[in-house]
Amino acid sequence: MTSSIKALRLAIKTCEIPHPAYVEHLKPMRFRIEDALDGAASRIERVMGPSRVGKSMLINTLQRDYPETRSGGRRHVPVLVVRLEPGVSPKLLPSCVLEALGVPVPSRLTSAEIRKRMLSQLKLAGTRAVLFDEASHLVDQGSRVLPRAAADWFKSLAETLDLTLLMFGVLRLERLFECNDQLRRRASAPRHFLPYDSRLAGEMQAFHACVATYAQLFREAGYPIDLPAAALTYQCYLLTGGLIGVLSRFMEELAAQMTHTVPRSLSFTDCQAAARVIEAAGSRHFPAFAHPDAIEHEVLPASLHQAFVQAMHDSEFAVPVLREAAGVRA
């Protein structure tokens, strides 16, 4: 692997683009955390969006903004990130919290003892906000935790320690709140983190800026993408349906295919090869990078919209209705 391509792949991997949808949700999440650190009453928030829309980047930013510190040998973890795996059980929920704190969980402990240890460790760490990544795993088909029981657990955790809980996941996370009136009424209104909508000029401009950022990384590394900027944006949108995570995955694969290649311009064929080996999120009827002559013609708005519709439907989200006069989502 050449040094230039190695540097390019690292730059793509670590690139975090503060796109508008990301910023839209980052600000209120920061506000909730700051409120919790100031001693305000606990709040429960949920952010739901398709896989690869950018929720993990949001969580990673919040974790960096409020890092763990040490003082006099004592750990202080104001904001704790707990990543839930598929198939968690009632006993594993508090265990996941302890593992996130770096506290060992002896197998001989009962569920009640593990819960007691979890609560005491959260107090010792001075934790005021807990972020649950992939919280929707609790309502996966075949989950070992009944939605009602899981909802009760979160409600109890928030009330016992007056913690602010931020929960992230796909749309089925809403089932936790649908089955428990007390949890739903304690929580804020749901937040939807959606892909870029091709019908909105501002969102397409923002998506183009994301594509241009990645293209600049390739250019700086000596591998300029030899496609008109608009054409590259449209083809990337057909591939991703507006999902920034899929765009990142495509760019990673495009760079990986140059691993044993000296710096040169990248062609339509190079993009086509990279697109073929990743899981596209757009419409199967309008595949991206399908034919070289497609670059010569502007992509029809209906084709772009079908890519967005596919990304939304695959994640069980309804396609927003646009209020034409205002030009915004309803």
Q: How would you characterize the overall build of this protein?
A:
This protein has 330 residues and is α/β, with parallel strands linked by helices. The protein folds into two domains: 3-16 and 196-329, no CATH class; 20-192, Rossmann fold, CATH 3.40.50. It contains 13 helices and nine strands. The chain has helices at 3-14, 20-37, 55-65, 92-101, 111-124, 147-161, 174-178, 181-186, 201-220, 229-240, 244-256, 268-276, 301-314; strands at 44-48, 69-71, 74-76, 79-83, 129-133, 164-169, 191-192, 322-323, 328-329. It has a five-stranded parallel β-sheet. The longest helix is centred in the middle third of the chain and has 20 residues, at 201-220. The mean pLDDT is 91.
Short description:
With 330 residues, the protein is of the alpha/beta class. The protein contains 13 helices and nine strands.
Fourth-tier CATH superfamily name of the largest domain: P-loop containing nucleotide triphosphate hydrolases
Global structural class: alpha/beta
- What number is the mean pLDDT? 91
Helix fraction, binned, reads 40-55%
Which CATH class of the largest domain?
Alpha Beta
Number of helices: 13
Secondary-structure element order, N to C:
HHEHEEEHHEHEHHEHHHHHEE
Secondary structure: number of strands: 9
Please indicate the percent range of residues in DSSP E strands (runs of 2 or more): 5-15%
Shape by Cα distribution: globular
What CATH architecture of the largest domain would you give?
Answer: 3-Layer(aba) Sandwich
Number of domains: 2
First-to-last CA distance: 49 Å
**Unreliable runs, pLDDT <50, ≥5 residues?**
none
Largest sheet strand order: 4-5-6-1-7
